[in-house]
Amino acid sequence: MLGSSLACLLLRFITSGLATPLHTLAEGVGPIQGVVVEVVFTFTLLFVICATILDLRMPAPGFGPLHTGLLVGANTVEGGAITGASMNPAMSFGPTLATGVWTHHWVYWVGPLASGPFAVVAYELLFMNAAGAHQPLLQEGDADAHVDVARSDRSP
């Protein structure tokens, strides 16, 4: 949020106070509709991140950032005219702070913060736990034991 705020304040200063673009609801779109749109876009974004970047079983490793970028582009094309397709409260906070226009700003917090954890939990329950994909993280002392087991497997 600090980066977004400083960038927008700097932009406002450099442009001598010209209008800073900010996320706003389109005419005819109510705040509840805006929240629903932001919930859907943030859910899909985090679900794709879980599936393509965080899940180590990804069939084509290395393509996660491409898939994520394509989804962000698609969400922006679809929702840009409706809510601005923020998908991230920090992205909306900087321009709002710089302009001082706080109308319906809460939409850009409630939507992503409500759907983000839900997307991660949904992916965990639907795909990670069902497939037994979770492996416990090694603790500091366990790393040595893991190396010893791996060495003993290779010895003749």
Describe what this molecule looks like in 3D.
The protein has 156 residues and is an all-alpha fold. The protein has a single domain, classed as Glycerol uptake facilitator protein (Up-down Bundle), CATH 1.20.1080.10. Helix content is 65%, strand content 0%. It has helices at 2-14, 31-54, 64-79, 89-99, 107-131, 142-154. Mean pLDDT is 84; it is low at 146-156.
* Relevant CATH superfamily: Glycerol uptake facilitator protein
Please report which band the strand proportion falls in: under 5%, 5-15%, 15-25%, 25-35%, 35-45% or over 45%: under 5%
Query: Share of helix among residues?
Result: 55-70%
**Number of DSSP strand runs:** 0
CATH class value: Mainly Alpha
What's the story with the biggest beta sheet?
Answer: none
Look at the structure and give the mean pLDDT.
84
Q: What is the name of the CATH topology?
A: Glycerol uptake facilitator protein
